[in-house]
Amino acid sequence: MLSRPLMTTQEVADLLKVKEATVRKWIRDGELPAIHLHREWRIAVRHLEEFVAARLTTDGNGQPSREDADADP
Q: In a 3-state reduction of DSSP, which class is residue 46?
């Protein structure tokens, strides 16, 4: 059973500060796993977390890059 709710493409777009079309492209290109329910796509929180983690920029030692570190307040 689902331990976390599924997110809409609009919710993912809002969270990541991108356009909904970008989220749909990631789904279409197979980069972001999604479930097609009726006429809409849903994204599992687990898959979104994996998607974001796979794109984390590191300095080669597993640490966030200086640019990422500077972005945090």
A: helix
